[in-house]
Design a protein that fits this description.
The protein is α+β, with helices and mostly antiparallel strands. The protein has a domain of about 90 residues. It contains three helices and five strands; from the N terminus they run H-E-E-H-E-E-E-H. The strands form two sheets. It has a three-stranded antiparallel β-sheet with strand order 3-4-5, with helices on one face. It has a two-stranded antiparallel sheet with strand order 1-2. Helix 2 runs parallel beside helix 3.
Length: about 130
């Protein structure tokens, strides 16, 4: 059984007791190493080459408030249109979670490509315009 230090637990969850005796949990940033963040960046670049014009925008940041090597986090967004976008991942996702989301994204795009090869472009139900 793995041993957990107080520092390890507090890195993930900060328990604050207020005047009442009810503790409130506030979650800190879930971080990763710079090497893990770089691995994710490389994966995003690979997906962008494979599935252009479907492009993910990637940024990685170091948390300046913590002075250790595993305090990096990433953000990935997808622009539906130049003015309309959604966050793919942001703060609060660890390396494994982001990797899983990227694998799911790749699987979905592969499925769309297979459909298009067999049946042609996907279309909105209310439009003849292809997706993407």
């Amino acid at each position: 059984m793995a041993e957990w230090s107080i520092a390890t637990v507090l890195k993930t969850v900060n328990v604050k007791a207020f005047a009442g005796s009810n503790p409130v949990l506030s979650f800190w940033l879930i971080t990763m190493t710079q090497e893990q963040a770089q691995t994710l960046k490389n994966k995003v670049e690979e997906l962008n080459k494979l599935y252009a014009p479907m492009v993910l925008f990637f940024d990685m940041f170091r948390n300046p408030k913590e002075d250790h090597d595993d305090n990096w986090f990433v953000t990935i967004v997808y622009h539906v249109t130049p003015d309309d976008w959604f966050t793919f991942v942001s703060l609060g996702f660890n390396f494994e979670m982001v990797s899983d989301k990227l694998k799911g994204y790749q699987f979905a795009l592969e499925a769309v490509q297979a459909y298009q090869e067999e049946y042609g472009n996907l279309k909105f139900s209310h439009s003849d315009l292809p997706l993407g």
